[in-house]
Amino acid sequence: MAKIKKKTITKRPQKAKKAKLNKTKKSEDYSSMSVDKFLDQDFEASASDEETNHDSVEESSGDEIQEHKAALSKLKDTDPEFYKFLQDNDKKLLEFNLSDEESDDEESAPHKPPEELEVASDESDFEDDSQVKETGTVTLKMLKSWENSIQSDKSNKTITTVMQAFHAALLRVSSEEGQEQSNFKVEGPAVFNGVIQLCVLHLGPALRRFLGLSDGSKQPPHKCKRFVKVRRVLKDYFMDLSKLLKGVTSANIQTVLLKHLHYLSPFMVSYPNITKTILKRLITIWGTAEEGVRVLAFLCILRITNGQKAKFLDTVLKSMYMTYVKNSKFVSVGSLACINFMRRSLVEMFALDAGVAYQHVFLYIRQLAIYLRNAITVNKKENIHAVYNWQFVNSLKLWGSFLSASYHKMQLAQLVYPLVQVCLGVLKLVPTAQYYPLRFHVVKILMDLSRDTGVFIPILPFILEVLSGYDFNKKHQKVSMKPIQFTFLLRVSKSQMMENGFKDALIEAIYELLLEYLTTNSHSISFPDLSLLCVVQIKQFVKKCANANYNRKMKQLLEKIEQNSKFIENERSKTTLNITDFKQIEGWEAQVKTKGTPLATFYDSWIKLHKVKKNKQLTNNEELGEYNLPTIKKKPAKVRNEGPVELFPSDSEDEDGGEEKKRKRGKRGGKNVNKKIKDESGPVEDEGGADIVEDLKMSDW
């Protein structure tokens, strides 16, 4: 065995030496020779001898190792290039220092090839180790097959595939770094829209069908047996949906995604961490997006929070209130509707839990009271401006609306008194003419609160103070081009106070507030006593005021108040009431209210016309009246049985030509032409339904 080994080992260096002497063969040829081939004869010989005589191999193993090491050491001198090749590619062969046990184990262990063989290519040298596997491109044909299978597939295979495709679609429009790659690739807007449409239309019903949940089921999804199979992919899907909502600005796409999220909101019970992120995004959309998108965002917030009150109601109320205050800093024609919607929706959210709402409302009203106290005690501009601003007033409107809607709950009814005290303090803080608009806003809050809760609040003195404290006989120095709207003002400037429109707006506001407040109490048994001070103040104003329009307006109001007082006195004289029996008095007032009062009847007819006029002013329709544009009115033509009816006889070519000639002559003639046109514009009675041109009247708008 030893002799055979010596021959096989010593022959290899001789062959390598002959290969070196051959100048046509390059040194790189050794790279094609593997170490296994270099030792194949030794391995075969040793293996055959081990089968025949295993004991003899063990005795001579030490001599073989020494001889083998000596043969390898000679390569350093005889063939240094081959020795260097061994150092670079098989260093273990040169360092032959294994123990007997390790050598025996390695010689006896058979060679096992790896399970996956690497295929060498030119591009593999330039690929990064972190590169993912080759991805598949999503096509419209694939989307069609997924759409068919997701409606009938009982497993989660198609659901998982569709969610992965949605992630790939998000990667196409997202530029965030470090995102987890997808097994699919979405290219083209058609495929992108197809993936989004597939998820929006079919993913929700497929998930309910897979988990066995009906549409009205209140069972949490994580308690279903098959939820484990979709838990991970559904979590990633909600994260992708949240990112997509954050990056989308189109109202149409936001509408579609929010409807889809509203349908999937019951599944979010199983993911509280992701739900916080989605709620935060929804609150941002609720406060800043378009009107239709705001409504959908609020519905999603309401459904998610209502299902998990203990976890998210407290946080949601804080975030929504801060968003409301932040976005109500300015009030204009465009922002008024959004602010009103946020206030109404916040009232709905606070009404979900009276206990949680009481803690929040108490703290926020207390915070408003602290601002008011600082403004009263310090009396600086900064402190006064902290109270006299839109955010403060809109906060008062919010809590007034909330307490009006939740007054029947005893726990919340206790907050009416501190809110009324804050409002009265705001009215008394700076009682000057410049802040009359703010006074009217706060008075309106108190009036609504008194009407809805039935709590008596002394509001009339703050309205009548304006009527008696301002000099309406003072001549104005400027003429208003537009009427002043107190709806969007808290303070008027000095130049606005010099305009005639300021006094007009004051009379309109006083008339409206007095009429509304007295109408609210028109069925009260104490109406004659309540309105007595108002009657006296109005009579004094009529005597002092020299403006006929103002006097006529206030006399009309005075007449209606006195008429209603006589009506209540007449109704009181018909029955005998015990003043201490409140239930009897409430029953009598309910009967009178159902029967109807003269003041309430007048108010119903007046408010309809007033709303129309107010809407015209808000939409600037009054400006069209300055141009005196003519309007065309057509009388209905009589139906005749014989012959066709000529609907527009004035549209013929001859008459058009005649009109053009009249216009040309009008430039030279002047008066005669104007007189002729004026005669033609008068009312004409014609059976054929001729056109009638009249001057523009604001009532036509």
TrEMBL record:
Organism's domain of life? Eukaryota
User: Which stretches are tagged as biased composition: Basic residues?
Assistant: 1-24, 662-675
Which gene specifies this protein's sequence? AUGUSTUS-3.0.2_05421
Tell me the SUPFAM superfamilies matching this sequence: ARM repeat
Q: Which UniProt keywords apply?
A: Coiled coil, Nucleus
Q: Where in the cell is it found?
A: Nucleus
Q: Which InterPro entries match?
A: ARM-type_fold (IPR016024), Noc2 (IPR005343)
Name of the molecule in the record: Nucleolar complex protein 2 homolog-like Protein
User: What family does the database annotate?
Assistant: Belongs to the NOC2 family.
Bias-annotated ranges (Acidic residues): 41-50, 116-129, 682-693
What does the record give as the organism's lineage?
Eukaryota, Metazoa, Ecdysozoa, Arthropoda, Hexapoda
